[in-house]
Design a protein that fits this description.
Lipoprotein, 4 strands, signal, Nuclear Transport Factor 2, Chain: A, alpha+beta, single chain, 4-stranded antiparallel sheet
Length: 101
Amino acid sequence: MKNINFIMVASGILALAGCVSDNSPTPENMARNTAQTAPADLQLACASASATKFGGDSATVLPVSSAAVDGGKYQIILDSKGQRSTCLIDSTGAVLSVEKV
C-alpha cells in the first residue's frame, strides 16, 4: 500500500512539473537579432574598395562585422591580415568612405 501511495504522489509531482510556462523571448525579441547586418554584396563591395585603396588582394580582405546606420547606410568592419579598416556604404552599393582603424 505504501508503494502505491508513493507512486501516486510521484506521478502527481511529475504531472505538475510538466505544466511550466515558457517565458522565453521570441526570435525577434532576442538581443542577437536586433542589429541589421549589411547584405553580402555590400560587404564584398567594401572588401574590394578596401583592397583597392590600401593595396593588396581582395581575397585577403574579410568582413568582420556590419551594422545598419542612419539613412539606409551600412558600416562594415574589415580585416586584412590583422589590419582593420571601416567602410561606409549605402544601400545602392556606393562606397562613401574607407578608413583604417
